[in-house]
Specification:
5-stranded mixed β-sheet, 6-stranded mixed β-sheet, Udp-n-acetylmuramoylalanyl-d-glutamate--2,6- Diaminopimelate Ligase, Chain: A, domain 1, alpha/beta, 2 domains, 13 strands, 252 residues, binds zinc ion
């Protein structure tokens, strides 16, 4: 068992949310019980995730996508009421880390994705790299664009959408997990053969084609499963708590 406040203090120390200008509060978002035995991690604090976490006996849920996003209607209506009611009914703590969890050099979504996809020499790069959001790396040996798509599909259990083109063989890459298609031109500026992110927008296709870069939309959810798992494992190592990751599949 560990104290809720000690867990949050530890997480804040590791992830340093004060260094980020984010679109949501990072850290404890909804207060539940003071003593925590079991932490369930997940990508998004959706209703389905909360229901499974409750069934698994969680005292705290720790996610990448929590609540209270900037610009959102702040009223407690509809799905928001039901989600909060679930948390309150079970005295469940909700902790969420957004950009600090993308960026962390060891447990972050970007570095963890590099491990999953076997990208080498991973390091933050460029303007967005200063905040840990855009990363570059290399492949251990060059891959055809199709072979890279296959590797991503196998390892993430979801086939990516591949658009654009350019190099006949891919050696260098840039990536940012989640809804980071907007960094494509920064990736072009780095001179890499391919850029990988989660989501795609209509203009991303034209940027990829006209800039001559391979773009892979590998899934917002699929690219962001790994940071929170690394964080949960680290907590279990540091404290006397149990950790369990629950994946609620999402095709986007
Ligand atoms: Zn995200």
């Amino acid at each position: 068992m560990a104290k809720r406040d000690d867990i949050i203090q530890l997480l804040n120390g590791w992830l340093e949310p004060e260094k980020f200008k984010d679109y949501c509060p990072n850290g404890l978002q909804v207060e539940g019980c003071g003593d925590v035995h079991r932490i369930v991690t997940g990508v998004t604090a959706s209703q389905a995730f909360l229901d499974q976490a409750v069934a698994a006996g969680a005292d705290m849920v720790l996610v990448h996508h929590g609540y209270f996003w900037r610009g959102e209607d702040p009223r407690i209506l509809g799905i928001r009421r039901r989600r909060l009611a679930t948390l309150f009914a079970h005295e469940l703590n909700l902790a969420a880390y957004h950009l600090p969890l993308d960026a962390h050099p060891v447990m972050g979504n970007n570095i963890q994705l590099a491990h999953v996809l076997d990208f080498r020499e991973a390091k933050p790069a460029g303007e967005a790299g200063e905040s840990g959001l855009l990363w570059t790396g290399t492949l251990e040996s060059p891959l055809s664009p199709e072979a890279l798509a296959e590797r991503i599909g196998e390892r993430l259990n979801r086939m990516p959408l591949h658009v654009g083109g350019g190099a006949a063989e891919i050696r260098t890459l840039a990536w940012c997990t989640g809804a980071a298609q907007g960094f494509i031109e920064q990736a072009v500026g780095l001179g890499v053969d391919a850029y990988i992110s989660g989501e795609i927008s209509e203009p991303t296709v034209h940027s990829a084609r006209e800039c001559g870069i391979h773009y892979y939309a590998a899934g917002h959810h699929a690219t962001e499963r790994y940071g929170v798992q690394a964080l949960g494992a680290k907590l279990q190592e540091a404290l006397d708590i149990e950790h369990l990751f629950i994946d609620v599949p999402n095709p986007v």
